[in-house]
Amino acid sequence: MSPIPRRSLLKAAAVAGAATQVGWVLGQEDAHAADGRATAGPGDPVRVSWLEDGGLGAAAGSTFGVPWRQGAHPAGTAFALATEDGTAVPVQTWPTAYWPDGSLKWTAHAVGPTAAGADRFTLAPGTPATAAKKVTVSRSQRKITVDTGVIKAVIGKDGTRLVESVSRGATKIATDGRLVLLRQGELDDGEHATAKWERFDGEISGATVEQDGPVRAVVRIDGKHRKGSRRWLPFSVRLYFYAGAESFRMVHTITYDGEQTPGRTKGDFIRGLGVRFTVPMRDAAYDRHIRIAGEDKGFLTEAVQGITGLRRDPGANVRTAQVKGEKLPDPATWDQRVTTRLKYIPTWGDYTLAQLSSDGFTLRKRTKAGHGWIPAGGGGRANGFGYVGGVSGGLSFGLRDFWHKHPAQLDIRGAAGDEAEVTLWLWSPEAQPMDLRFYHDGLGQETFPEQIEGLNITYEDYEPGFGTPYGIARTSELMFWANGATPTADALVAQSAAVHTPPQLAASAEALTSAGVFGGLFAPVDRSVPAKAKIEDQLDYLFTYYKDQLEQRRWYGFWDYGDIMHTYDEDRRQWRYDVGGYAWDNSELSPDLWLWFAYLRSGRADIFRFAEAMTRHTGEVDVYHLGKWAGLGTRHGVQHYADSAKQQRISTAVYRRPYYYLTADERVGDLMHSLVDSDETFLVLDPIRKIRTEPYEPDRNALSIGFGTDWSGLAAAWLTEWERRGPKAAKAEARLRSTMATIAAQPNGFVQGSALYDLDTGKFAVESRPVVGVSHLSSMFGLVEMCAELIPLIDLPAFKAAWLDYCRYFNASRTEQAARYGSHFGTLLLFQGHSRQDAYAAAQLGDTALAARAWEKFYSSDGYTRAMVWNKTPLTGPTVLEPGYDNLEISTNTTALFGLAAIQNLALVGNSIPR
């Protein structure tokens, strides 16, 4: 297994042996800095530390979330942050969630770059320290100006210049920050290339200040890409600034709204997608420097006009200064055989690093446009970082997940002239155009019966016109530094590391556990007895397996990175990447939750980063954000948007909540807020239209909605909006209460399965006769977690009773089911995954028999039972493309449910584990 990072070991050691207090408790206003005037409430300080070492001090700052037990701190409480030795650290605080009694549930905290000087901190109620340099924001009719105390950025409210200028003192380091889109209207599907490109510029429709200091400022810019009268490809860009920082961060999102028709070569094909800045070049050509990162700490280190390696030597001190990026001595002091011939030494103004795959990049340069390119090196995986400028200042720039989300590219143009142009290409124009057309011609599946036949052979739920990318999105993260001089080699390495792995502060696993958030369904890692230790080893095995498969199978790419595969092909020793619904997983059976719960209880940085990438992907690429299916996600398939099952169970906010509350990430917050009205989507699309046996037409006042995968997704969005006090919080709370009450009022409660929902009242119609409508999938997409959060939040005893009955009877015998509900539940699956419902009911009711059944179903029903062999079979060619290993018993459905059942059973009935 891969080693656990040192900081994760420190965090784990800090919580080892801590008493676990499992609580059944659950619970934004405008973000602002706490003013320190509120009265501090009770509560112990929370320990906070860095997830990793890399990049500390180079990044602008860090934002992290902390949970609080209900009633611990009233709204308005101010918090102070200090290092272990008691040194106060300036911090900005704002609430991100509230408990029903109005007390703080989650708070977000921002620190500037000075916090990088310590490893561990404590956070407690108190007056925050004042930053020596504050970030300030000023507004005018057409501009927003942000000043960190070190750099000043002028941001446009209209036009095409998102960032008009970035200055350091009186020196402009960069200007004209803008978005670039290259469109190719026709693909070259043959040997004769005729396609033409056209350039679109990002046009601003509005800019908003979301936070204005004193430690953190956030500006959001929205718009579309424009050429002439056409506007398309909406973008949303957020710029983050921290007090005392010389850098800023950009979070860039595009939503695809073009046309690509299967079988046709004409359409809206993205040929290049980038962020571009102009960098003034003030210094002599020999005092201008290029730095481009390769792998790890490798760098191309050059001057625009090199004076090393010449036939004549200018002097050792001159050569040494140029390599270090320092200002050269007056040329009059050089060997004059060099000085008098400077005009004959070429200046290299253009550089390109192209990462067209996850495994290789090429680097080349030329003197200027119209002249030939010269190879300058290459390698495997570039960090996506560079610098252009001179001894009087310059711009460092970086694109996170550069090789992970290939094809990507970095361009420097014109560095030998008065202005250099830097472009960070999120999609490299040297790659093939972005082809999002559906991958087959339908195979004659025109009718529902034909489509069901197709489902029965490839597991793909196909329907004409449904495999469209229209409305999917992708978010990228970039960083920029306005340097007062060419940075030292060590400074560049730190900046590059901060791009690759942005420093992240995090509360301890003990703090996350003791607050009782997320339903209290996790507890710190516990190896106190052999039975528990064995399960912990198995959980570690599974995470390591998927982390290794990501690398072995190259699950990378702009649209793919962050997802994992669904099912393995034992014959090909390959995941079924090309077989219908067995390919990309798209959150099937909640691997997102497994990973987040695994992090919450362990504090492991590697798990956090894996889950972070999945959250970014599944919330953006697997969900529609525009069009008639906005608010719905797509079931697993060969392409992330290919399957015709568009459902709440994929778009559900339950998968985004942990990342949002741990980081206060505004983009993920947007995604969850956008789902508040997603009950309206049931008017547009019936999720079970192909298998209905009775006539049904969607009706605003009588929509068929299931209590499992449908309602759990709606409830997650409503809960999040309510506890964040979002703009629609009142509606969200009312919807929660009305749907919970009318589910409980059904003759068979949750076992009823579904009912007709009224969009205007937010209530389910109460059926007149009892029905048994149980599916093994109903509670496997966040329903377990939602009910665990909602039951203590909203006092509805009938709802709690209905849920506990569902938990008690799913894994009961058919005789017991029939005795309680009039008939048994039919043929069921996923008993191991449902063992956590036995555990929940056992903990709620104090039922030792249910606790015993939870462990019996966990160990001996289906899934990874006691018979599971936890081995690794080595694989080499010619059996597989790349050497590695596999385990034929591993499947993602089983992994996700085993992981969740193991974590929740240990938290709820760990003391009842068979020894």
TrEMBL record:
Q: Where is the PcRGLX/YetA-like central beta-sandwich domain?
A: 135-496
Domain (PcRGLX/YetA-like N-terminal RIFT barrel): residue spans on this chain:
45-125
Positions of the PcRGLX/YetA-like C-terminal alpha/alpha toroid domain: 502-913
- According to the lineage, what is the superkingdom? Bacteria
InterPro entries the UniProt entry points to: PcRGLX/YetA-like, PcRGLX/YetA_2nd, PcRGLX/YetA_3rd, PcRGLX_1st, TAT_signal
State the coiled-coil residue ranges.
none
Question: What protein name does the entry list?
Answer: Tat pathway signal sequence domain protein
What is the source species?
Streptomyces paludis
